[in-house]
Amino acid sequence: MDSFSSPSMSSSGSPGDTEVLMDQIKAQLAQAYAQEFLETVGNKCFAKCVTKPGSSLSGSESSCISRCVDRYIEATGIVSRALFSSSR
Q: How far is CA 31 from the centre of its chain?
């Protein structure tokens, strides 16, 4: 049985079942978003910072990637706060 065919999907589900299902969906969406975010940031920062791929990162490449990821995280936080504060 997969996560989409659970017994709580019946039409006679209680409000508690609906709440549990919504929590599961929120958790799955959060996980998918986090995976997509990390993949996007990793790809963009790698392309920006690693000019000559090798067996290891140079010090400057490592610093660049660290700063790049920090900027993406900060920018995502700013956008998220702006979106959520304007929706209230």
A: 6
- Written as six digits, the tokens of 37 are 């975010």
Cα 13 from chain centroid?
30
Which tokens hold the place of 71?
Answer: 């900027």
pLDDT in tens, 4-51: 554 444 455 677 889 999 999 999 999 998 999 889 998 999 999 998
Sequence-separated (6 or more) residues with CB below 8 Å from residue 41: 68, 69, 72, 73
Radius of gyration of the chain (CA): 20
Distances (CA, A) of 23 to 3, 41, 65, 88: 12, 27, 34, 21
Burial of 77 (0-12, 13-18, 19+ CB in 10 A): exposed
